[in-house]
Amino acid sequence: MKKSILLFAAIVMVVSLVACGESEKPVSTKAEESVNEEAGTDNQASTDSEVEIEKEVDGNAESEEEADVFEVSSDKNEEVKSSGNLFDKDKVFEYDNGSIVMKLTKAEFTTKFGASNADPEDTWANNQINSDSEIYFHLNGSIQNDRTDSLSFGNSLGAINFSLLYDDKHEFQNTSTAEEENGTKLGASSIDALSEGTIHVYFQVPKTVAESDKPLVLTVNMLGEPFEIKIR
What we know:
Elements: H1 2-66, E1 91-95, E2 100-110, E3 112-114, E4 126-128, E5 134-145, E6 151-152, E7 160-166, E8 170-173, E9 175-180, E10 185-186, E11 190-191, E12 195-206, H2 207-211, E13 216-222, E14 225-230
Antiparallel strand pairs: 1-2, 2-5, 3-4, 5-12, 6-11, 7-8, 7-13, 9-10, 9-12, 13-14
Signal peptide: 1-21
Protein name: DUF4352 domain-containing protein
Keywords: Signal
């Protein structure tokens, strides 16, 4: 009888221990699963975040590659080049059976001109515009004076004068000069007797005159007789 009781008690204890072990295992497993799930969620979130960042970086790279790029020139004081010759052919003016012959070979809009053999650094041999809003209308040519007195030109008292009419209402007056010392200097607006000289006639005008397509007419007044040359 005692043996039966002891055996029964032992079985009860074993069953109790087994039951306790089984009840603790699920609790531990659930806790671990919860931790693993949270860790997995964090890892997934981190991975998703990295993927999103990569996509954003790639997207920005693609946007930059596909963007239109506009660059502003760093040189804002670039010199305006000559417009080229506005004359279709030379313009020749004669007086008194060829005793005075003037030939205009070139007309241009430019910011700078000089004597034929001028040193580029010589300010007496070169004229350069100092205004951002203006430009020269420049004429180049020659005058042959086969008379026994000097010939003045390009001024109100000269035998030859010039004027420029823009848009049929705006008139500009000229400044003139002749080359001296074998074309190394710009001098007075006169040609010595029995000689020939290279001349420059120029008008300082607004840049609008050069950029517009409105009428532009050069008038050459030679010993009281006017001659009109249509520039455009």
